[in-house]
Write a structure and sequence with these properties.
The chain is α/β, with parallel strands linked by helices. It folds into 3 domains: about 160 residues, FAD/NAD(P)-binding domain, CATH 3.50.50; about 100 residues, Alpha-Beta Complex (Polyamine Oxidase, Chain A, domain 2), CATH 3.90.660; about 100 residues, no CATH class. The protein has 13 helices and 20 strands. Strands 1, 2, 11, 12, 13, 14 and 20 form a 7-stranded mixed sheet that branches. A 7-stranded mixed sheet has the order 7-6-16-17-18-15-19. A hairpin with a 2-residue loop joins strand 3 and strand 4. Helix 1 runs parallel beside helix 13, helix 4 packs across helix 6 and helix 5 runs antiparallel to helix 6. It is globular and about 70 Å long. The relative contact order is 0.19. The mean pLDDT is about 90.
């Protein structure tokens, strides 16, 4: 097989790369390669036998429009999203210290006077701190928040998510679990503290609605976020993009003008340009199969005839003793079908055996979200073994060294999206993919 562009990975990054190239070089011959049987990765929606018309999301995300209008026109075409739900804000709450806070995703530690007083004293003694200046998360948290908040609040919550100690984690870890800021004191105390520039970076508003953020989120409604992936996939098919599913890359040989790719099946592909969107590099020169530290994810899908006791789209469960992590309430995101039950998904990060559904049902009741365990029924459970990477310092160093070596040995390969260390959030991934691939297509044949 001969192709102009071979894109490794048919997730949202790969689909976006293909559409971007086609927008610049409409006649390009593009092939996407993926080990899965369908596109999208974890950004899919699933149904279950008992409720075949109900859809639940894996990787529960509400897509956000990017700051690049040309990119938005490709991945969020107006003729498609005009039928979707549009949100000017995300309503996110948290459950912490036995209290349900529906006004903010960020913790408010004010109800515990012993922590509050000590934390306030220590915060006022802190100096400006930049994340890049610290070797690990523990050092960074102590510098930004002080010992009390670090040891009594952050330590048990981060351990719940990662199962490793703070000193083993990279400072950026704090951004990944809804813990990037905290609220301290009542509204006026918080506003006064935020007048101090370096505390403004550490502290949250008491209510998320006070945060000045202009953005738009879109959601397909009853069909779930998987409908977005289907839309991107169909656009690619309409533009004659080819897909090779259930295929793995075994070896890449650099030719004088392009690449010869050998697949695990024995088939070969010759490509002029190679675009890599995966976070591992097996098959490339210098690439190796490396098992990084990770934990499993269990995604519990529930139905109920009764509406949950919240208007939030998401709730982060920041109760260290609970298994639940992030809760998604689909029927708060988009209007529900009156004949269908309410849908809730609970994500759990775990090692070993996943918790029994009855434990998660009881946690939903203890959070005050449903009246009784019997009012919540299990629609299905999705598990992703080793699906949640743990950002430990040693692992990041190895990953960056590996990426640097692979990039040196494969100078003509375009690494983008998840293929580049440091990109985590979907919007940042999309922007990087668009920038890298539009430049590549323009140089090659636009």
């Amino acid at each position: 097989m001969k192709t102009d562009y071979l894109i490794v990975g048919a997730g949202v990054s790969g689909l976006t790369a293909a559409l971007t190239i086609k927008s610049v070089h409409a006649d390009a011959n593009i092939t996407l390669l993926d080990a899965a049987s369908e596109p999208g990765g974890l950004l899919r929606s699933v149904g279950f036998d008992e409720h075949p018309s109900l859809h639940f999301d894996l990787g529960t995300h509400i897509p956000e429009l990017t700051s690049n209008q040309a990119l938005n026109a490709l991945v969020f075409p107006e003729e498609v999203i005009k039928h979707w739900q549009r949100l000017s804000e995300l309503k996110v709450g948290n459950f912490f210290n036995g209290q349900l806070n529906q006004q903010s995703q960020f913790l408010n530690v004010s109800k515990d006077e012993s922590i509050f007083c000590q934390a306030l004293v220590e915060l006022l003694q802190t100096q400006p701190s930049e994340m890049a200046d610290y070797l690990n998360l523990e050092e960074f948290l102590i510098a930004r928040y002080g010992q009390a908040l670090t040891q009594q609040v952050f330590k048990p919550l981060i351990f719940k998510m990662t199962a490793v100690e703070l000193k083993e984690l990279v400072p950026q870890t704090i951004n990944f679990y809804g813990l990037a800021r905290i609220a301290l004191g009542n509204r006026q105390i918080g506003l006064n503290l935020k007048q101090i520039p370096h505390l403004d970076q550490a502290l949250a508003f008491n209510q998320d609605s006070e945060r000045p953020r202009q953005s738009t989120w879109v959601y397909p409604g009853e069909q779930g976020v998987g409908e977005w992936v289907k839309t991107l996939y169909q656009q690619c098919l309409d533009k004659n993009v080819k897909f090779e599913f259930n295929q793995r890359l075994e070896q890449t040989v650099k030719l004088r003008d392009g690449y010869e790719i050998r697949l695990i099946s024995g088939d070969q592909i010759t490509a002029d340009k190679l675009i890599w969107t995966l976070p591992f590099y097996t098959g490339l020169s210098g690439g190796q199969q490396t098992r990084f530290v990770s934990r499993s994810i269990a995604i519990y899908h529930f139905t109920s005839q009764y509406a949950p006791n919240t208007a939030c789209h998401y709730i982060y469960c920041q109760q260290a003793a609970f298994h639940s992590y992030r809760l998604t309430f689909y029927d708060n995101v988009a209007p529900k079908n009156a004949t269908q039950p309410y849908r809730t998904t609970v994500e759990v990060i775990y090692d070993g055996e996943k918790p029994e559904p009855k434990i998660i049902q009881q946690e939903l009741v203890e959070m005050g979200l449903f009246s009784s365990p019997e009012s919540i029924q299990v629609a299905g459970i999705t598990t992703v073994p080793y699906g949640f990477p743990v950002p430990v310092v040693a692992q990041q160093q190895i990953q960056h060294s590996l990426f640097k070596e692979v990039a040196i040995q494969n100078p003509d390969v375009v690494f983008t999206g998840r293929g580049k260390p440091g990109l985590f959030f979907t919007t940042d991934v999309l922007l990087d993919v668009y920038q890298q691939t539009s430049k590549l297509a323009s140089v090659k044949g636009g």
